[in-house]
Amino acid sequence: MRKEGHGRMMIKPVREERALVLLGNFNPIIFHPAWFASEGLIRKSEAEQAKSELIHPDVAQIDFGGYKLLVTRERFQLTTEQSPYFRVIADLTQGIFQLLQHTPLHAAGYNATEDYRMDNEGHWQALAHLMAPTQQVWADLFDEPELRMLRIQSATPLGHTQVQVSPLEPKPPLTFRIAFTDHFDAPTDSVGRGAKEMLSVFMDNRERSEEKCQQVFSKLVKLATGKP
Amino acid sequence: MTTLIQEEPVSQPLTAGTSLRVQEDAPRDLHLEGEATTDMARVPPRKTFSRLITLPSSSKKPRYLQEKEWLGMVTAVDEVGFTARLKDYQGGPDLETSFLFEEIPQEDLDLVQPGSEFYWSLGYRIEPNGQRLRYSLVHFRRLPKWTAQKLTEARQRARDTLRALDSELDGTT
Questions:
Q1: B30 contacts A23? CB cut-off 8 A
Q2: 3-state DSSP helix/strand/coil percent for chain B, to nearest 5?
Q3: Directed axis angle between helix A196-225 and helix A86-99, to 10°?
Q4: Which residue pairs from B112-117 have beta carbons closer than 8 angstroms and sit at least 24 positions apart in sequence?
Q5: How open is the CA angle A73-A19-B44, to the nearest 5 degrees?
Q6: Are residues B74 and B129 located together in one domain of the fold?
Q7: Residues of B with CB below 8 A from A158's CB?
Q8: Cα separation of B147 and B55, whole Å?
Q9: B67 and B123 Cβ atoms separated by less than 8 Å
Q10: Who is most buried in A118, A179, B32, B141, counting CB within 10 A?
Q11: What's the CATH number where B132 sits?
Q12: What pLDDT sits at residue B82?
């Protein structure tokens, strides 16, 4: 644990991940490291070092070192566990679909997952009790009921936001995972009209999505530790 | 890591037509989903492919403990480096600072022009063996360049909009 400025949370996650997901119709075989470099989306040396783990008409999976790309016919997904690349993958997504502007997109998701390790096993129990008081509700029905996963969803003007919280270890857990998703549906009048409008909605909101997920992580960690 | 097995042995590299399938007990990080969800927490069911797939396990990677991040914009360039205005993503005050070219990946030097943007992050890089290294990472934003045709189209749209506004102000149609 440590202190930080600007009101940020005091506990650092032991694992962080950001994933940008687009749903639509894709042609996986065009996603090759050399294509990215030739379009100036990545450095030539990055393309040379990228590992094409899979290139096939139905699926492409490339490890660029700092981030990974997975494309199937229905899904495009860029994932990174390295914080300096959180914004880089958003730029890359934007760059790709500015080039592939006729790709039909119908949904997009900003995913943030963080794992927090507590120094006290009581922290998860405190958080679990606040989110779902199992002893009050379930103790007369089951022996030692435990919260294993909780999912909260809220509608937004553009789709929905969802948070899932779960312990990562058997009882008593010290580490828990918070998974945040900001889901955007394509504007109804833009479906079938290419990537431009869906991408614009997604990119215009990416900083707000990141701010929202930080608020969620911060709040849940504070609830777990009991620190204001 | 993705665990896939081949139905028939093939020599590398793997190409279309190779017969591979996803191993039943493969970990879940290859999201070969049929389910239409953007939610990474709801991992879709595994799917078996009749043809193809891959490969090798990746080695353990370093982890980054980011302390600060700024969005920078180049304001001036000289012989040895450049000056940039920095916007703090954590809400701190804007700053102005200078960078030497030697701090920038050599392949990014042609991106260093007044107006171009970059991310600058500071923190610790934690190696798989636990060793911590201080890092300063400058990453210039790479977005597709405007082509001459796109610029012409944008100028035409601007002219059309201006004409429409002028007409509206004049009360004509």
A1: no
A2: 20, 30, 50
A3: 160
A4: B112/B74, B112/B77, B112/B82, B112/B140, B113/B74, B113/B77, B114/B74, B114/B75, B114/B76, B114/B77, B115/B73, B115/B74, B116/B73, B116/B74, B116/B140, B116/B141, B117/B71, B117/B72, B117/B73, B117/B74, B117/B141
A5: 55
A6: yes
A7: none
A8: 38
A9: yes
A10: A179
A11: 2.40.50
A12: 97
Is there a contact between A82 and B141 if contact means CB atoms under 8 Å apart? no
Q: Assess if residue B14 is contained within a domain.
A: yes
Q: Is B39 on the interface with A (CB under 8 A)?
A: yes
Contacts of B144 in chain A (CB under 8 A): 39-41, 95, 98-99
The CA radius of gyration of chain A, in Å to the nearest whole number, is 20
B75 within domain boundaries: yes
How many structural domains are present in chain B? Answer: 2
Last residue of a domain, one of B59, B78, B104: B59
List of residues 6+ apart from B26 with CB closer than 8 A: B2, B3, B4, B46
CB B80 within 8 Å of CB B100: yes
Q: Could you tell me how far CA A41 lies from the centroid of its own chain?
A: 22
CA–CA separation, B38 vs B138, rounded Å? 30
Query: At residue B58, does pLDDT exceed 70?
Result: no
Chain A residue nearest residue B121, CA to CA: A84
- Tens digits of per-residue pLDDT, A105-125? 999 999 999 999 988 888 998
Question: What value, to the nearest 5°, has the Cα angle with vertex B172 and ends B171 and B173?
Answer: 130
Token pair 């990174």 is found at: A80
Mark whether B49 and B100 lie in a shared domain. Answer: no
Which range marks the domain in which residue B129 is found? 63-140
pLDDT in tens, A50-74: 999 888 899 999 999 999 999 999 9
Contact residues, B window 121-140, toward A, CB-based 8 Å cutoff: 121, 123, 135, 137, 139
Same domain, B38 and B97: no
Same domain, B31 and B49: yes
Q: Report d(CA A167, CA A60) in Å as an integer.
A: 32
Interface pTM, i.e. ipTM: 0.84
Statement to judge: residues B51 and B72 lie in one domain: no
Measure in Å the smallest separation between the Cα of A200 and chain B Cα atoms.
14
Question: pTM score > 0.90 for this model?
Answer: no
Amino acid at A66: G
**In terms of domains, do B51 and B93 share one?**
no
- Does residue B49 form part of some domain? yes
